[in-house]
Amino acid sequence: MSFNLQEISGLTCLVSVPALAIGSSAAQIAFGATTFVFRGIIQTRGSSASQPWPIEAGTGLDPRAPDAYVTLAAGQSCVFFVLVNPLAGNAVTAVQGPIGVAGEPQVTPAIPHNRVLLGAIKVTNLTNPFVPNSTALNAAGVTSAFTNLASHPGSSL
Questions:
Q1: Half-sphere exposure of residue 76, counting CA atoms within 13 Å on the CB side?
Q2: How does DSSP assign 97-135, residue by residue?
Q3: Is residue 156 a part of any domain in this protein?
Q4: Into how many domains does the chain fold?
Q5: Could you point out which of 86, 94, 124, 150 has its C-alpha 20 to 30 Å from the C-alpha of 111?
Q6: Residue 68, in any domain of the structure
Q7: Mean pLDDT of 85-109
Q8: How far is it, in rounded angstroms, from Cα 111 to Cα 79?
Q9: Angle of CA points 156, 121, 126, to nearest 5°
């Protein structure tokens, strides 16, 4: 069996690790410059020390508010996928996975079409409400675990 370019045409994945972390503004994220493949073409995204991570339009968990995150109550946890949109100047957005019980594996969200996955943030909230992209990722009672991913993990985090 031989390997050819037809087998990888349309490939979309991360090539270099962006090292997601808490940004200089603690409600935002930071990451290093990264290289990714989108539809088989190698591209880059510059670094950011403090990047907002607004919700990817139309992906909200509440169908009455599809363009808004759902706040995590005390004792809840979920995974956010941080994305790059190569069709919109490499804009950064995120999608929120289903909300679960803190301390348990969390279901990962789907990756919207035409987006590149930079990584995941698993937020566990033990005390006060956590408002995504607004509450500090290191606020009292909040634990944020960052995971670098080349593509969808296909499992819970």
A1: 17
A2: PPPEETTS--PPPPPPTT-EEEEEEEEEESSS-B-TTTS
A3: no
A4: 1
A5: 124
A6: yes
A7: 96
A8: 12
A9: 90
